[in-house]
From TrEMBL, chains A, B:
Record-given protein name: HTH tetR-type domain-containing protein
Xref: PROSITE patterns: HTH_TETR_2
Source organism of the structure: Mycolicibacterium flavescens
InterPro entries: Homeodomain-like_sf, HTH_TetR, Tet_transcr_reg_TetR-rel_C_sf
DNA-binding region: 30-49
Keywords for this protein: DNA-binding
The organism's place on the tree of life at top rank: Bacteria
Amino acid sequence: MAAPATAPLTRDRIVSAALSLTKAAGEPPSMRTLAGELSVTPGALYRHVAGQADLVALMIDEVMEHVEMPDEATEPDPWRRIRAHVHSLTKTLDAYPGLDRLIAHHGDSSNAARVRQQWTMDQLRTAGLNRRDAGRAYGALDIYWLGSRQRTQRSVATFLFGLDRLLEGLRAHSRNSSATSG
Amino acid sequence: MAAPATAPLTRDRIVSAALSLTKAAGEPPSMRTLAGELSVTPGALYRHVAGQADLVALMIDEVMEHVEMPDEATEPDPWRRIRAHVHSLTKTLDAYPGLDRLIAHHGDSSNAARVRQQWTMDQLRTAGLNRRDAGRAYGALDIYWLGSRQRTQRSVATFLFGLDRLLEGLRAHSRNSSATSG
DNA sequence: ACCTGAACACCGTTCAAGT
DNA sequence: ACCTGAACACCGTTCAAGT
């Protein structure tokens, strides 16, 4: 599988190499290290990628595209769909240590991120939350999974315990507000 | 208030200047910038501080010492004490933009952090959680406030909404487990 | 069109040498 | 004892010059 002579430098090869190095080192490579891995000069990267920030965004896109969003057939309860989705986020990021910190720094304004947000808010509305509460609930869940990736990693048990408490609180809130208007 | 001639370089002056620059710039200064602000050469800093990581730890210590931990006289309900404490964390960090990210990266293994952890777990146990659940609940709260500081800042309303849902879920959990053993 | 080589303006850290 | 000056080994990014 050795590349014959010199494979053409493309955006995909750059992103792929960056992710591979991240996986191996536990943190994203510098532009210079990345260039070296691709047997190229640092300046060459800038013909295919606008800069480090752009590259980071592409890496995040690539990884986050594989997060699960179960449908009603697979999982009839919307709360369990949300739980599976958030759990999937952490499992996905476990494969690329250091990428979670990049997401925290850089944010994620990709299309995929907007799709995930819309999907989550749809589930929350299906579960009975009004539009304002669904927006806030999405924010709270986003805060929670992101926080779980920072600092010294917490145990999975702690993460799931808190996630279940948060979902339970949201469900109770949804019951109360629908009771008020019923 | 101009310093006469040359004030002696001390650890306190270094930490104080670093925090002041962080407040002004929205992000922590480099060692070189910090040295320049103190009218000194970068190497001089290393006589008083082990390095950048050490300095960051000292900055975190200094700031986090002012987080509120209300007592029973001020606030009789343990859940409200916890809520006030977590809210105080965010208010404290609002004064030093950029420091929250440092905490996420660096962690906080100071004595003050251990005191806060112990205090929070005491409140949770008072509120009825057993030791294991109190540990996990502390972890979940830690995840939540830390996550709220990352990326583009969420609104206060979203933060408080999620915090209240999480606390509600924890309270419900404590009621269920005490009912089981009662 | 694409890449190299070299430069610019930065980093954190160390340490002989000065005072 | 404390600080300076200079160096070492890095960064991200730009851009004339080569092919």
